[in-house]
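Lest this sound abstract, we think one record worth quoting, the chain in one-letter code, the fold tokenised, each line plainly labelled:

>
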Amino acid sequence: MLLWLSNLLSQNIRAFAVFDYITLRAVLAMMTALLISFLIGPKMIAWLTKMKIGQSVRDDGPQTHLVKSGTPTMGGALILVSILITALLWCNLNNRFIWLVLLVMVGFGAIGWVDDYRKVVYRNPKGLSARAKLFWQSAFAVIAALYLALAMSSPDITFDKLLVQFFTGSVDWSLSERTDLIVPFFKTVSYPLGIIGFVVLTYFVIVGGSNAVNLTDGLDGLAIMPTVMVAAALGIFAYVTGHAVFAKYLQFPYIPGTGELTVICAAIAGAGLGFLWFNAYPADVFMGDVGALSLGATLGALAVAVRQEIVFFVMGGIFVVETLSVMMQVASFKLTGKRIFKMAPIHHHFELKGWKENQVVVRFWIITILLVLVGLSTLKLR
């Protein structure tokens, strides 16, 4: 909206042309999302408290968590609202990749909202059934995967023209190297996926990312800060892949339009930092599934759009380890009757070993910083 206005004004006042720069709009998007979070955060927390939308705590978990019972949850809605408003203000709404991210964010956010609402309002401990949750996650992920395949097949046209091609059946589905699976640290190693392979990979990255962040969201501030760091790093990759000169120099596939994703990555980082203000230990509000499922899926969609799926799982290593710990715990108990960890996800294991909650959180943050730096090093070390 503001970009459209600045373009209109720049026809008579040249100074407004500065808003065409993605880097400037990224900075402004981060500041805008942060400010929105600060402004509406206290009101949203007060409303959640008034409506008694409080978190229930597991009895078999660390006893220190019992005091958290009743803390407002579903605070992830604050993040999504901040991102959505910021995107509408600063993003180029003709960009097909922006609409992809918004589709995934809102779709998975709706799934999380229903799940949270059933848990805290209807007092249904199961919330949305696992089967129903996976069905709707799969539906949105497949739609996003097909949308991305469509966008990759026609990288040089705007969103509205892309839709016209789709509905008129004139899409060229012959995918190029833009859909190859890129192996980090190697200049020429990539694997052609084809249309089916690309859709399958996209599905698993989006659904996997969604559930991984959801499993990580168990301690105050644990999930949101890694999300902020990974989103910021993906913003750098987005800028490179969307810039013809930088992409050629660093030997990345040039994908026109992905540079605009830098703005929305900055918005995610700003909204996440704003939420952390209220979610830091001891938390005034919890993210809930509405935030965790949505943010994880959004990060996955961003990673696929900039063709950095493997790097995404490296930078989000904490999310991967948390997920693997649950899978290993369940498999071990079913096969042998014994548990590998004191409790899963693994952050609870460290708590039961004697680490304080803020120690677990900060140490996981430090690990994420190192992993993000490893991911960013692949920009040049190839």
